[in-house]
Structures are given as C-alpha cells and as structure tokens.
Amino acid sequence: MELQVLRKRVRIVLGFFVVALVLSGVTAFPLQWETGILVQLFGPGTFVGNLWPALAHWISYIHQGIADTAQTYPFIAYGTDWLAFAHIVIGVAFVGPLRDPVKNLWVIEFGMIACALVIPLAMICGPIRGIPFVWRLVDCSFGVVGIIPLWITRTMIRRMARLG
Questions:
Q1: 92-128 as b/e, with b when 16 or more CB fall inside 10 Å?
Q2: How many C-beta atoms lie closer than 10 Å to residue 84's C-beta?
Q3: Within a domain: 24
Q4: pTM above 0.85, yes or no
Q5: Which of 2, 15, 58, 164 is deepest in the core (most CB within 10 A)?
Q6: In the prediction, which pLDDT does 164 show?
Q7: Are 140 and 118 in contact (CB under 8 A)?
Q8: Which domain holds residue 129?
Q9: Predicted pLDDT at 58
C-alpha cells in the first residue's frame, strides 16, 4: 500500500516539475511580445517603474535590445528557439521516471545536477554578458527552486527502492 502511495506522489511531483520545465522553456519563443508586456507593466512611467527606476530601465533596455535584434537580425532568435526546444526535450526525459521511478532514478539525479549547474553558469556568464547581479540571482533561483521537487522525488524513489 505504501509503495502505491509513494508512486502516486512521485508522479504528482514529477508531473508538476515537467509542466513547469516545459512552460519555462516555451516562454522563450515569444520574447519580444513578453518583454513588451513587462515594459507596459513595470517599465519607465509605471507605478513599479517609479518605485524601482533601475528595474524599469533594465526591462526597457532588454525589450529594446530584443526588438532591435529581431528587426535587424531575426535569425538570432533561433538560439532561444533551441533553448525552448531543450526544455521540452529535457521534460520528455522525465517520462522514464514517471513510468518506472526506481529504474530511472538517474534521470532525477541528472535533473538535480542540471539545476545545480544553473548557478555557476549565471555567475560566470552573467557578468560577461552584462547581466546585473540581482538578475543573476533571479536566474539562480530557477536552479534552487527546481532542485527542491527533484530532491523530494529522489527521496521518495529511494524509499520505494527499499520497500521493493
């Protein structure tokens, strides 16, 4: 009975993780539209923009860069298309643990490693690309938040393995 409960919980947590992973990736497709909305909500002249002008300027700067690049060099967006695709493909890898969690524990551990690697990537590449420190911390939070459901899942799967 406990094994069945654990299997159900693993599927729920992994299902949430996969949906979040795929959704975070798919948002890389409409970047120009999304950053346009952010400018309207948080850019210069908005309530938030008046409270936090540096954030408003950053959002406006990012949107302008994406818009200018899309206008002059639209092929550059192909890189973010691949980013979105990678999120989807990684999400597909988690079908294995959904089917047989114990046999596919390595996928969970792979995901945990990937989450941990977000931090050095953001801290090394962020300054090279001119990304403000606060935004690098936001990027790091994806790895930190992502590892939590995977760690919970790993714990449940290891318990499943002990139960047989």
A1: eebeebeeebbebbebbeebbebbeebbeebeeebee
A2: 18
A3: yes
A4: yes
A5: 58
A6: 81
A7: yes
A8: 2-28+77-163
A9: 95
